[in-house]
Write a structure and sequence with these properties.
single chain; alpha+beta; six-stranded antiparallel beta sheet; 2 helices; 36% strand; flat
Length: 258
């Protein structure tokens, strides 16, 4: 009958609408869920990535002495394993008794030159040292002194900086780590060169309180307390003024009291 057909037709239309709404609901829900998961994965990736990028290796220094609140330690590198009068303090740390000094150790070595012209000190651009090795040439371009990377290969962990004869004046060759001089400037004449060792090992020694970053260190003073240290290690300073002070190094990053 006519009423029966209308009822059946309305029921089928309702069923189609219901199925369509149900399908749309699940599709939107799934899309929202997937987007949420993508955002979660993406956020986790970038958080992890940022942590990885931002994490700089470091060394920790703990003052466990009995009486030395004026403790001053120099972190430095050397041309060789023997004491050298040209060693400079790359960084210094002065933790008070019972505290920890945290010293980040970046890996970005660079080279530049400093020169004088008409009584004014100039600095060339700074070139990154790739893979801790390379050869560089300091030359003259018009009135300017420039530095460029050489195509010549050089042994691992060695950096050679040559000054061309046409430079016609002595320049100071500088090697930096994290922007600070890791070796004191080396005065180099035209036609000469400087050879540097770029090694991961740093050295730590107790120095006079007045020594600051960039200061020239005295070999005799270093030899009495010098220890080698690398990123990821902790130095413990113990002792007192009567018995003397000792530096011991352990793997791992510790803090005072732990």
């Amino acid at each position: 009958t006519e009423p029966g057909r209308n009822t059946w037709f309305c029921f089928r239309v309702f069923l189609l609408i219901y199925r369509g709404c149900t399908f749309l609901y699940f599709e939107l829900s799934n899309e929202a869920y997937l987007n949420k998961r993508i955002r979660m994965v993406s956020n986790n990736y970038f958080i992890t990535k940022n942590k990885t990028q931002m994490a700089t290796p470091q060394i920790n220094i703990i003052n466990n002495t009995v009486d030395n609140n004026n403790l001053n330690l120099a972190i430095y590198q050397k041309f060789s394993s023997t004491p050298d009068l040209t060693v400079a303090a790359w960084r210094t740390a002065s933790p008070s008794i019972g505290t920890t000094a945290y010293v980040p150790v970046p890996s970005n070595y660079a080279v530049h030159a400093i020169y004088d012209a008409d009584g004014i000190s100039y600095r060339t651009k700074s070139l990154q040292i790739i893979d801790y090795e390379g050869a560089y040439t300091i030359s003259k371009d018009g009135d300017d002194i420039t530095i460029s990377a050489s195509v010549n290969e050089y042994p691992d962990n060695q950096v050679l900086v040559a000054v061309a004869k046409k430079v016609a004046q002595a320049v100071d060759v500088c090697i930096t780590l994290g922007g600070d001089d890791v070796y004191p400037p080396q005065t180099t004449s035209p036609g000469d060169s400087q050879d540097f060792s770029i090694l991961p090992t740093l050295y730590l020694a107790k120095v006079k309180p007045e020594v600051t970053k960039g200061g020239i260190l005295v070999a005799e003073e270093l030899s009495s307390s010098e220890v080698s240290i690398q990123p990821g290690q902790t130095a413990f300073i113990t002792g007192d003024i009567n018995s003397g002070y000792n530096i011991t190094v352990k793997n791992g990053l510790y803090t005072a009291g732990n």
